[in-house]
Amino acid sequence: MTAWEQRSRTEAAMLNPALLAAITASAAIRFLEAGGRAMPWYYAHLVAPLVLHRGTREALPRDTRTNLTTWVSRHPVEHAGFGQRAQSLRGAVQDGLRFGFRHHMLELNQEGGLTASLAQGRGHTLEPNSDVHRVVTRAGFVGKWLTKIEQPATAFVILGVAP
């Protein structure tokens, strides 16, 4: 991972631990709402590379009726780079998890599931139509989408990465 002082402004903004924590929190909130259980913590390593890469984020389905296997087969270009993106984001995702735990955005339960909360109200809303808003919103979608997969390891296999 590149040292903070050597990062471009865009890289520093998009790999900011607070943003990575918000991405994970958004996914965990929607996972819990849709699935009735806490999101496995290691899903954070799938959510970030799916939503931070603009091409992949824009190619995600609009609703959860499209299953992950179908989506991967229809989007070979996005899938081809996924493993490398996931690996390159590993440290940033871990920093985001630590930030989220430290600032009480994320909590880990006894079974290794993440629960989350995001501050709302004045000063805590994302500007609509901003890249950050789109990223965090799509992270929520991915959290909901992942509830459709019964075994978490299946998502890693479909995406071609190891947990």
Automatic annotation (TrEMBL):
Keywords annotated in UniProt: Membrane, Transmembrane, Transmembrane helix
InterPro entries named among the record's database cross-references: ABC-3C_MC3
Transmembrane intervals: 12-32
A Pfam family: MC3
Protein name as annotated: Uncharacterized protein
